[in-house]
Amino acid sequence: MMNDIAKEYQDIYKQMRSKFRWQASDQRILMMAASFYIVKGSPFVLKDYSDLADYIKNKSPLFSPMRSHQRFTTAAMLIQRFDHPHEKFETLTHLYDKLVRGGFKKGTFTYISALVMMSDDNKERSHQALIQRSLEVHKGMKEHHPFLTSKNDYPLSVLLAQLDEEIEPIMDQVEHFYRQLDQNGFRKGNDLQFLSHILTMDKGSSADSLITRCLELSDQCRRRKIKIKPMHYPEIGLLAITHATAKDLDQVEAIQGELNQAKWFKWQKDMNTIMAVNFVIREKMDNQMLEAGIYTTMETIIQAQQAAMVAAMAGGVAVTANSSN
């Protein structure tokens, strides 16, 4: 089954690449867009995807990131999450404008934040209330880690703001995870901060048990051929929250190995590790996590992880473009 998933992922990527190889400035953008279909379990239709990507480009302002790399991941996210993605792009742009008027700075990360807001299922909460709460969360993040927190963290701020808790206890728990993992061998930085955010979203396990699982999983990965860098800390979080077993890690290792041998992906080993974990987690959710509460939590965490990947990729693409200029 997992071999079929890896093959489907490669097939979707090849179709995207055949259409957009000269327009996507970094092949990892299309790798990520293709992976969203696999993680969500939705069918891929090249024409629908291409039409929406072109629509986004044509409807966006001249210097908007939506006219370049970001349209490819945005199109994939809109198609898998909504029945009428063209209409939802209009909603996305309206929310983006609201975020900017509310105090968010213009750019890629605010667009991603608008996409995150569209998935908020609290119908009683107004957009304005969520925007204000998100800014308060971002401020709290900045107070704890002023040199780490930036516009990149906007999407996570929106996700954390959706939790039905007071902001101060949320930030205290994030900081607890950060300190404990740092003291046990995890490297300080943005990636550890994001792992701490992911763990905070799990309300079904104690903080100590989650920390223990992260440490054990990190150690197990090191003893295998699963090379863990700080950029993979979020994957450790996903594995910890889903109580990953040795069998799950066997599957991660197998998919990673298959992608590392594939023509298009053999130079993207770090990304292949991320994809392998995400595919195994999705399969695990579909087979085992049937309780609505758990499933919803994991959907939110995967959404956070996707948003962070898009944000990191967008930042990397921007740096590359600036260097070229």
Task: Characterize the structure shown.
This protein is mostly helical. It has one domain (2-319). It has 15 helices and no strands. It has helices at residues 2-20, 27-40, 46-59, 70-81, 85-102, 108-117, 127-144, 154-161, 167-183, 190-200, 207-222, 233-241, 246-261, 269-288, 292-324. Helix 3 packs across helix 4 and helix 5 (85-102) packs across helix 7. The longest helix is centred in the C-terminal third of the chain and has 33 residues, at 292-324. It is globular. The relative contact order is 0.12. The model is unreliable at 318-325 (pLDDT under 50).
Keywords:
325 residues, mainly alpha, globular, disordered C terminus
The count of domains is 1
Q: Can you count the beta strands?
A: 0
- Distinct helical segment count: 15
Provide the β-strand percentage band: under 5%
Shape: globular
Low-confidence stretches: 318-325
> If you average the pLDDT, what whole number results?
86
The percentage helix is over 70%
Measured on Cα atoms, how large is the radius of gyration? 19 Å
Describe the biggest sheet?
Answer: none
Distance from first to last alpha carbon: 45 Å
